[in-house]
């Protein structure tokens, strides 16, 4: 997850490996001032993890940024999936 975020232009703010928490932010765009993300990665077993993501607008009142959360989630999941598929193919 930490390696993937910069590839999709999300800036890594903090990474606490002990509790599996990552904070990041998205850049400002034409339609949004950007978003702050909190990502929790919890190991379920040797073959599975659960990812929980929260996304908050940097500016609370931003009508045009309202749909950004789903786009952020989809972008992160697609990037992680791609990274995992590449790692699997290289094994």
Uncertain parts: none
Number of strands: 4
- Helix and strand composition category: alpha+beta
Count of structural domains: 1
Mean pLDDT across the residues is 87
Biggest sheet layout: 4 strands, antiparallel
Query: Measured on Cα atoms, how large is the radius of gyration?
Result: 14 Å
Strand content: 35-45%
N to C succession of SSEs? EEEEH
Number of helices: 1
Relative helix content: 25-40%
The coarse overall form would be globular
* Multimeric organization: single chain
Strand order of the largest sheet: 1-2-3-4
Q: How many angstroms separate the termini? A: 19 Å
Quick overview:
This protein has one domain.
Structural account:
- The protein is an alpha+beta fold.
- It has one domain.
- Helices cover 25% and strands 35% of the residues.
- It has one helix spanning 68-90, and strands at residues 11-16, 21-25, 35-45, 48-57.
- The protein has a four-stranded antiparallel beta sheet with strand order 1-2-3-4, covered by helices on one side.
- A hairpin with a 2-residue loop joins β3 (35-45) and β4 (48-57).
What are the defining features of this structure?
91 residues; alpha+beta; 25% helix
How do the strands and helices of this protein lay out in sequence?
Layout lengths: L10 E6 L4 E5 L9 E11 L2 E10 L10 H23 L1
Antiparallel strand pairs: 1-2, 2-3, 3-4
